[in-house]
Write a structure and sequence with these properties.
Layout (H helix, E strand, L loop, with lengths): L20 H21 L21 E6 L5 E3 L2 E3 L1 H14 L4 E6 L5 H14 L3 E4 L10
Parallel strand pairs: 1-4, 4-5
Antiparallel strand pairs: 1-2, 2-3
Length: 142
């Protein structure tokens, strides 16, 4: 026993573990943002295209995308249109560029008469180049 010497307890040691709670919170926020924005990125009309061996890629930027869904409703881009508004939109596209191509996407279950009716509206509007969009059939093993 010595006088003047006091026993000291060791002081608090620095924490060497990573706090995972903020990391998990940030990751959950990112997942929620992804879940909310993913459906907004897909703006196309759901159309079940017929299958064809003669499909080609669409590299031309001078086109108007026109879709006809299963119910026969017509969409220019992703906006639904009927009658005079459809004819006006197609005439406006033809007026801007006479060589504009109409890329027609029609559901496989749409009656042929409805497709011909829309083609007639496009032809009257001045769009004479009409391309039919189809999907490649699934590959069959040989």
């Amino acid at each position: 026993m010595s006088f003047g010497r006091l026993e000291r307890s060791p002081g608090p040691q620095p924490m060497s573990d990573i706090n995972m709670t903020p990391l998990v919170d940030v990751m959950l926020v990112l997942v929620v943002i992804l879940i909310i924005t993913a459906p907004l990125l897909v703006g196309a009309v759901k159309v079940d295209l017929p299958k064809s061996e003669a499909t080609s890629s669409m590299s031309d930027s001078g086109f108007v995308a026109l879709s006809i869904n299963k119910g026969g409703q017509v969409f220019v881009g992703d906006r639904p249109m009927e009658g005079e508004t459809l004819a006006l939109a197609l005439a406006q596209a033809a007026q801007q560029n006479p060589d504009t191509e109409l890329q027609l996407r029609s559901d496989a279950e749409v009656p042929y008469g409805r497709v011909v009716e829309v083609m007639g509206i496009a032809h009257k509007a001045g769009l004479h180049r009409i391309g039919f969009v189809a999907e490649m059939p699934p590959a069959t093993p040989r």
